[in-house]
Amino acid sequence: MSFDIQISDALPRDFDNVEPLYQEAFPDEDLVPLVKELLASREDVLSLSALADGKLVGHAIFTMCSIDGEKGGSGSNVALLGPIAVMGELQKLGIGSTLIREGFRRLTAEGIGQVFVLGDPNYYSRFEFSQDDLVAPPYPLPEKWGPAWRSIRLQPQDQVVSGTLSVPGPWQDASLWV
Ligand SMILES: CC(C)(COP(=O)(O)OP(=O)(O)OC[C@H]1O[C@@H](n2cnc3c(N)ncnc32)[C@H](O)[C@@H]1OP(=O)(O)O)[C@@H](O)C(=O)NCCC(=O)NCCS
């Protein structure tokens, strides 16, 4: 299949389209309240839309965070990736990768040092996310999820930091982390 994908900052008119996208991509999980809260706090998030022929086909959110108890480095400039969703029939065609790489490009330019994610290691390892044992997630994870807690360093010259990821309000809900 061949089509042009455009990536843009999600505009308010995308809000109504974002909802069915997440409902379809996550049929067993209601992420819509989280997505809506994140999109409402726009200064704390990078919200990227993937558009094909002007239609929303993918969406990704990067939330700006900090690291509590960091030792060394500029750990306050970090981000959390998620959620991310691509329309069912267009999955595995590169749209998710395009959203993630565009997010990395923009965050790198803004001086963000590191991006964290809680997600499938098989998928995220392809972006050089590696398991992170130095910065703990905001809530303890079940042991079997250890390999799913990952990060990528966008500014390799920065010192490695350690501590606990401190997340803004929408992410301060333990049920999102179990
Ligand atoms: C996960 C998701 C965002 C990936 O987006 P996508 O556009 O389908 O992914 P891409 O096409 O960019 O994937 C690139 C590669 O990863 C593979 N891939 C995609 N999803 C994968 C998954 N869940 N596990 C392992 N590999 C996966 C693709 O096959 C592709 O492989 P290739 O390069 O060898 O062909 C999308 O499939 C989705 O919305 N899934 C349901 C919701 C979800 O699980 N979101 C992530 C958790 S927050």
TrEMBL record:
Which InterPro entries does the record associate with it? Acyl_CoA_acyltransferase (IPR016181), GNAT_dom (IPR000182)
Q: Which Pfam families match?
A: Acetyltransf_1
Q: Which residues form the N-acetyltransferase domain?
A: 5-147
Q: Which residues, if any, are the signal sequence?
A: none
What is this protein's name? N-acetyltransferase
**Which organism encodes this protein?**
Parasedimentitalea denitrificans
Q: What is the lineage of its organism?
A: Bacteria, Pseudomonadati, Pseudomonadota, Alphaproteobacteria, Rhodobacterales
